[in-house]
Design goal:
Elements (H helix, E strand, L loop, with lengths): L10 H13 L4 H46 L1
Length: 74
């Protein structure tokens, strides 16, 4: 289902939008979706990176503990 949207934008914004859509290999609808989704993707990537950094020391300690236990068994 498609819905029509009528909005008023400043001329410089329209020119920017026209240039952006002209340079895109995607149909207009897909290009707009990608543009909207990009900040969300970047936010998730940043959250994953920060979480990995925060947990890195804990994970390293766990790996070393397990390695020590395995060494004792051999």
């Amino acid at each position: 289902m498609a819905r029509q949207l009528q909005i008023t934008l400043p001329e410089d914004t329209m020119q920017l939008l026209d240039r952006w859509l002209a340079s895109s290999d995607y149909p207009e609808n897909e290009a707009i979706k990608l543009s909207i989704m990009e900040p969300q993707r970047n936010y998730l990537k940043q959250q994953l990176k920060e979480g990995a950094i925060v947990r890195a020391e804990r994970d390293l300690n766990l790996a070393q503990d397990w390695f020590s236990l395995e060494e004792e068994l051999w």
